[in-house]
Task: inverse folding
């Protein structure tokens, strides 16, 4: 600076200068304006921030509506004895609720020590934790990656603000503000209600958290990792679980035991430092080889973890359907309730009967020795032009029939052989330029297949079911017993023909002639006996010997519509009244209905239910797989009350039962006898080309139906019991089921009486009739006596007299002829003797050489 005389004078001049004074004033005022502007902007910003903050708080869920109870609990299925048979879980519902009283203090303290050390001191938010996280974030260049959320906030984040996994940064800030506000309100509200605030929050938190391996909540995690309940866990085991929530995948103790162990050590350090455990407890837990036990527990679980059984599949389908039909759920709602609603499904399964059925179906000796391997295969590829094309097993079969063997089928001697053909066909498809694989599915099955259902006819409870032969490799797959419709063959005669016949006045003694007969279109009705006909036989005999001609004649007389309508009452859902398929009209209201010739066939389950109606005195029960469905608190959500209706009279049911007893004792089903004095009634069934074979039968206890055939509908081979192995299965299973059950008779209703009738006409027997004892309803007992047998007897007697007279005449003629012959023979002999005598006299003189003496005078 210049402090000389000239410099000072210049400075004075500058200060007194008007221009300089203006410039100085302008600068000062400008700075003032800037400062005011900045302050104004700050005030506006603060106002806007405060407004935004208030807006965020205003949109915070009301504390009264905030539900901190976790959703997504596992559902359990129980058999008829109350034993758990299956656990159902969705992707986030493998959770089992447990009270805070059952959660060890070590578990509670471990989670508090690692996740929220001031949990018992703060009122919902941790100010110290927020300040610490903020300072650390600023120190790291405004990277705020250190958490300060309390357990209360985390509980709200998981159960109230459940969409946080896909939020933006702005949404995250908004959620954090609301979360903190609601945390304060929640704890204040619980305190006001006089509840143990920290216990309520901790209980819900420990039931909510993701603990890896598909488990949610400490109870499910304890079961998963240690094969025991949470109340049984040691300190060491509790700290394993407490180490997981920060990153359930990274700290999964099965897949990453080393990483879990490192964080577990931090849990133990915190517990020691915060005074929750002693030094000796710390050392003991630290040296515990807990991960060896986890590994051992997983091996044990792998042995018991299986895909759903066919019974469970069927029960799931029925519960889902009933939730929609009876409760009005949408499909999504029903699915969520089933897999995440913590339901308790009490099924009808009898574990012992199911075990017997499974045992016999797993025995290869019960199936044909020449069993094959079938294949279900599909392929999707993308062509060079980007379009996708699908290939099926049927296309593969057609390819090999054209290229190699016109008789090629999808039945192989081994899986290896089947795979070789798949690979060969796939190679052919992918050989085209630009074709790439998109997806492929392949499953192998044992063939021929078989299904079986056992039902308690008194209430419709399905006790056991098998939907296919061989290992079941996936859940909710094809259940042939409930989903596959097959032609029922002669098992349908009872339901489509003879039941309506008896309902409409016919009797088991009604007589029809087994003879050459054709359908209305001219096609011959063929019998399993070939061209050998039985002539006039009763309906009872026709049932016993499964005579097709008589069944068709009876239904024709009734009209097929009568039989069709009754089948609908029996619960069949696959029948077709009239349907156009590929330009052709199909209807099951036709004569072939008598023999089970229908458009689509029937399922094993529905055929079982229909026969069970006969076993139950004519009352049909809807087949059910569960009795009740409750929530986790025992409140009934679904109750499978008996859906019953009378289909036929008790007398019709008993008469058919009596006739079907003959099927087993002396008819086509003698192979099915149980070898005991347990009464058994049933009917065999075989389709004309031996594509399907059945037996539907029942005892006074259970109804059971078995089916066998190829998935591809090929003809069953006669060799190696290929057409009768299903009968052996039925007999073996039902014999074991009834092993310890006391024998009892089918109950005869009072409306059924016994009468002696003519075997030939079915009328009351006369003195000359061949007789038989038969059951009738009171209304159907014949009121006419047979006269044709007497006329036939008289005619026979007259014919006999004539035959006897003719015989007598012939005998007399024969006698006369014999006498004449004898007389002639005697005359001949006499002549010969005289001739010989003369010759002898002639020879005597010559022999003596002396002349004869002269006579004396």
Result:
């Amino acid at each position: 600076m210049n402090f000389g005389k000239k410099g000072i004078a210049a400075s004075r001049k500058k200060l007194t200068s008007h221009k300089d004074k203006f410039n100085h004033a302008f600068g000062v005022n400008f700075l003032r304006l800037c400062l005011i502007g900045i302050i104004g902007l700050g005030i506006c910003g603060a106002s806007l921030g405060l407004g935004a903050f208030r807006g965020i708080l205003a949109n915070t869920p009301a504390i009264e509506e905030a539900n901190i109870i976790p959703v997504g609990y596992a559902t359990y299925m129980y058999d008829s004895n109350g034993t758990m048979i299956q656990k159902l879980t969705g992707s986030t519902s493998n959770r089992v609720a447990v009270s805070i009283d059952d959660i060890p203090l070590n578990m509670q303290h471990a989670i508090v020590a690692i996740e929220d050390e001031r949990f018992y001191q703060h009122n919902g938010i941790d100010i110290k934790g927020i300040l610490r996280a903020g300072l650390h974030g600023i120190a790291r260049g405004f990277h705020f990656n250190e958490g300060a959320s309390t357990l209360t906030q985390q509980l709200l984040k998981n159960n109230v603000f459940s969409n946080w996994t896909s939020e933006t940064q702005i949404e995250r800030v908004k959620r954090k503000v609301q979360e903190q506000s609601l945390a304060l309100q929640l704890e204040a509200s619980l305190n006001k209600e006089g509840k143990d605030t920290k216990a309520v929050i901790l209980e819900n938190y420990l039931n909510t958290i993701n603990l890896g391996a598909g488990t949610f909540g400490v109870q499910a995690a304890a079961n998963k990792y240690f094969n025991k309940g949470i109340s049984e866990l040691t300190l060491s085991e509790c700290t394993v679980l407490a180490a997981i929530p920060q990153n359930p995948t990274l700290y999964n103790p099965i897949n990453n035991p080393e990483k879990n162990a490192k964080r577990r050590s931090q849990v133990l350090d915190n517990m020691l430092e915060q005074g929750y455990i002693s030094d000796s407890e710390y050392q003991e837990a630290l040296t515990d080889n807990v991960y060896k036990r986890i590994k051992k527990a997983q091996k044990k679980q792998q042995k018991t973890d299986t895909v759903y059984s066919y019974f469970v599949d069927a029960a799931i389908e029925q519960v889902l359907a009933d939730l929609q039909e009876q409760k009005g759920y949408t499909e999504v709602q029903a699915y969520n309730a089933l897999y995440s609603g913590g339901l308790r499904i009490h099924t009808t399964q009898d574990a012992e009967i199911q075990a017997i059925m499974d045992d016999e179906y797993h025995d290869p000796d019960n199936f044909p020795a020449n069993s094959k391997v079938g294949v279900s295969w599909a392929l999707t590829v993308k062509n060079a032009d980007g379009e996708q094309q699908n290939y099926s097993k049927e296309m593969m079969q057609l390819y090999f029939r054209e290229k190699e063997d016109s008789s090629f089928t999808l039945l192989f001697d081994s899986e290896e052989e089947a795979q070789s053909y798949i690979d060969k066909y796939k190679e052919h498809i992918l050989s085209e330029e630009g074709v790439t694989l998109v997806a492929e599915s392949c499953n192998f099955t044992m063939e021929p297949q078989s299904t079986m259902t056992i039902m308690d006819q008194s209430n419709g409870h399905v006790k056991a079911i098998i939907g296919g032969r061989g290992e079941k490799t996936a859940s909710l797959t094809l259940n042939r017993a409930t989903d596959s419709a097959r032609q029922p063959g002669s098992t349908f005669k009872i339901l489509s023909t003879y039941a309506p016949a008896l309902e409409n006045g016919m009797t088991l003694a009604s007589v029809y002639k087994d003879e050459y007969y054709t359908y209305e279109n001219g096609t011959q009705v063929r019998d399993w006996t070939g061209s050998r006909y039985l002539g006039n036989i009763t309906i009872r005999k026709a049932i016993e010997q499964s005579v097709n001609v008589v069944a068709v004649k009876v239904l024709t007389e009734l009209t097929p519509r009568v039989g069709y309508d009754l089948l609908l009452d029996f619960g069949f859902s696959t029948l077709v009244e009239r349907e156009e398929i590929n330009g052709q009209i199909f209807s099951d209201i036709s004569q072939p209905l008598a023999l089970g010739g229908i458009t689509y066939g029937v399922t094993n389950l529905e055929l079982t239910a229909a026969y069970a109606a006969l076993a139950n005195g004519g009352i049909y029960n809807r087949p059910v797989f569960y009795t009740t469905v409750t929530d986790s608190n025992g409140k009934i959500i679904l109750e499978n009350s008996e859906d019953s209706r009378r289909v036929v009279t008790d007398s019709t049911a008993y008469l058919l039962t009596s006739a079907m007893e003959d099927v087993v004792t002396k008819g086509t089903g003698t192979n099915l006898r149980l070898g005991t004095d347990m009464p058994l009634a049933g009917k065999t069934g075989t389709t004309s080309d031996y594509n399907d074979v059945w037996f539907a039968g029942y005892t006074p206890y259970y109804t059971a139906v078995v089916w066998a055939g190829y998935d591809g509908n090929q003809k069953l081979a006669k060799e190696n019991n290929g057409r009768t192995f299903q009968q052996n299965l039925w007999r073996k299973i039902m014999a074991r089921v009834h092993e310890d059950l006391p024998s009892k008779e089918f109950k005869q209703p009072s409306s059924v009486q016994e009468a002696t009738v003519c075997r030939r006409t079915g009328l009351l027997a006369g003195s000359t009739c061949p007789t038989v004892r038969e059951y009738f309803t009171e209304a159907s007992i014949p009121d006419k006596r047979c006269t044709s047998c007497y006329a036939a007897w008289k005619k026979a007697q007259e014919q006999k007299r004539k035959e006897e007279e003719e015989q007598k005449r012939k005998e007399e003629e024969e006698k006369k002829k014999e006498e004449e012959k004898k007389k002639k023979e005697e005359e001949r002999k006499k002549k010969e003797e005289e001739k010989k005598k003369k010759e002898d006299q002639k020879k005597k003189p010559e022999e003596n050489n002396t002349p004869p003496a002269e006579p004396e005078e």
Notes: The first helix runs from residue 5 to 16. DSSP finds 26 helices and 22 strands in the chain. Residues 852-857 have pLDDT under 50 and may be disordered.
